[in-house]
Amino acid sequence: MAITLTDPAAEHVVRFINNRGKGEALRLGVKTNGCSGMGYVLEFADTVDEDDNIFEDKGVKIIVDPKSLLYIDGTELDYAREGLNEGFKFNNPNVKDACGCGESFNV
User: Fold this and answer.
1) pTM, full prediction
2) Strand partners, 25
3) Is 60 exceeded by the pLDDT of residue 102?
4) DSSP assignment of the chain, as one string?
5) Which of 35, 42, 102, 103 has an alpha carbon 20 to 30 Å from 86's alpha carbon atom?
């Protein structure tokens, strides 16, 4: 499987990297966090580690470390604006349960 982006997510990432003036890719991972166990980590990467998995969708490179890939393989990353709020949304087919606030999940 792979990690994919919706058109709005890809446009946001490309715009951000261009405005930033540097960046190799978008790094997506997970860490122990929140009341459900795991939370997403999203950052812009300037380097790629030797053991990273690299996916490319809509012209954007997405880097995932091997441990995180177990939990997020098949995830689609979306970017949405709802009223005054905007941000990334994770459509992860592996999620079995999520906390009420949406900050953490478990598989």
Assistant:
1) 0.83
2) 45
3) no
4) ---EE-HHHHHHHHHHHHHHT--SEEEEEEEEETTTEEEEEEEEES---TT-EEEEETTEEEEE-HHHHHHHTT-EEEEEEETTEEEEEEE-TT-SEE-TTSS-EE-
5) 35
